[in-house]
Backbone:
């Protein structure tokens, strides 16, 4: 329920933004709201605005847009958890998790995540705002965030380590301004946002002296962990099996068992049989090669001929094109439940990402409507669903190991990974592989948990998974909070 808005700081945003194509560097607007949640009803405030990025001399280089939600009936804010949320890309705004996952408002989609009209938003009774305050952050050139100094060096924003460095400084300022230093703090990132928050966990500790309670990785990237060659090729197969199962392309005996009963079989095949076979290359004998091809076909729905013709290496682009080729359809990259139609059935890759077209269809009108009409953030600055952030420097990506070191340094820091079985860009089995390589000794295992869902990259678009995934976050937060006076030590 929307309430009265007013200015938090000195700049009169609503009177000045129309007619401007660049945002004001430092300003905020507050609105008051009420929500009927899954467990309880409560009032909350939404603060949306801009916070500057300064250079070492104190000059403003850029401004970062944020939306900060706080529950009103909290007697001791210092004990209230704070969740800092980032999406990915790189170059993507925070819109995705903001309006479809953890925030108090939910875009208008059906129970499987497909667009509905009229566009807009509705109440999200499953929001985690009952247990934690949330700030959604748009890195530079995403959402309403922009570089304001035309002479600024773009490389200080657009790269794995540059992104982490300036955002850690920005978080320090935010936590100071809103008096959240004593609050338990959590980072959540999706897709490339997992690279970002994995690196931030260490950067915040070592450069800002800010220690976290938890990190949540939603559909994680490779986090800089090498898996080229046979490992990369073998790790795809559990995702292929999940997708083929969803589209009823497997043998009947496999179709008749539950997905979560099937996947462990394929994981075992991928690690114990397929990986060593691929590593052998041309040295594999013909009998073993034929046996592996038959198993690959059985667990993927692809023909033995196609697998043999591609030397047992099926890239994801080919899989998305090939699985339903006989039906004249392609499948989505980020969520293989989505169906596309290409200009021609021939070829080795789909013409477009069917799922992304669907998502932009529903998210873009919803976020623009929401800011202007419910949060009173009225501006002529365009909300960048995907902004200009390239070239992006991907060198020296050690974020997975940075997160491991942060956990080693901080006995309170816990980790949860959430993955959709039908995500072909950041697939669930590679997310598991990250954890195995980050913690090969298993010493951190008691502080790591993995959750899988029957949907894709944005698993929360499916209502059943939205409910389950938010409940998993709620449980993770509650269980990762230390007991009163519990010391941080091994």
Residues:
């Amino acid at each position: 329920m929307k309430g009265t808005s007013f200015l938090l700081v000195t700049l009169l945003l609503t009177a000045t933004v129309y007619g401007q194509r660049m945002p004001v560097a430092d300003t905020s607007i507050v609105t008051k709201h009420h929500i009927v949640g899954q467990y309880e009803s409560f009032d909350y405030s939404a603060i949306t605005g801009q916070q500057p990025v300064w250079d070492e001399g104190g000059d403003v280089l850029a401004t970062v847009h944020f939306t900060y939600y706080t529950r009103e009936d909290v007697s001791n804010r210092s004990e209230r958890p704070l969740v800092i949320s980032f999406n990915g890309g790189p170059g993507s705004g925070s819109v995705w998790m903001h309006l479809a996952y953890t925030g108090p408002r939910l875009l208008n989609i059906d129970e499987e995540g497909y667009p509905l009209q009229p566009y807009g938003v509705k109440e999200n009774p499953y929001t985690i705002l009952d247990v934690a305050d949330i700030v959604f952050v748009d890195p530079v050139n995403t959402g309403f965030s922009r570089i304001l100094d035309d002479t600024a060096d773009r490389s200080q924003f657009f790269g794995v380590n540059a992104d982490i460095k300036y955002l850690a400084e920005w978080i320090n300022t935010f936590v100071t301004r809103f008096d959240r230093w004593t609050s338990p703090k959590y980072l959540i990132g999706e897709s490339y946002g997992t690279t970002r928050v994995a690196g931030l966990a260490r950067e915040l500790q070592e450069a800002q002296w800010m220690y976290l309670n938890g990190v949540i990785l939603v559909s994680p990237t490779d986090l800089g962990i090498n898996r080229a060659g046979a490992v990369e090729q073998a790790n795809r197969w559990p995702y292929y099996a999940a997708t083929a199962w969803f589209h009823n392309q497997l043998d009947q005996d496999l179709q008749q068992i539950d997905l979560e009963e099937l996947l462990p079989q394929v994981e075992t095949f991928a690690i114990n049989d397929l990986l060593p076979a691929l590593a052998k290359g041309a040295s594999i004998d013909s009998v073993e090669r034929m046996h592996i091809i038959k198993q690959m076909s059985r667990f993927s729905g692809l023909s033995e001929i196609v697998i043999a013709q591609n030397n047992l290496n099926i890239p994801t682009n080919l899989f998305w094109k090939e699985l339903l080729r006989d039906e004249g359809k392609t499948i989505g990259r980020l969520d293989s439940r989505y169906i596309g139609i290409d200009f021609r059935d021939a070829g080795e890759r789909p013409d477009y990402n069917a799922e992304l077209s669907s998502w932009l269809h529903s998210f873009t009108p919803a976020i623009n409507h929401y800011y202007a009409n419910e949060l009173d953030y009225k501006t002529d600055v365009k909300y960048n669903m995907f902004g200009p952030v390239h070239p992006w420097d991907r060198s020296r990506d050690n974020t997975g190991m940075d997160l491991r070191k942060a956990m080693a340094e901080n006995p309170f820091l816990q980790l949860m990974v959430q993955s959709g079985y039908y995500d072909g860009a950041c697939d669930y089995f590679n997310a598991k592989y990250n954890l195995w390589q980050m913690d090969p000794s298993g010493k951190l295992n008691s502080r790591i948990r993995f959750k899988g869902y029957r949907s894709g990259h944005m698993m929360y678009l499916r209502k059943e998974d939205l409910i389950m995934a938010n409940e998993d976050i709620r449980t993770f937060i509650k269980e990762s909070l230390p007991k009163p006076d519990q010391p941080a030590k091994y």
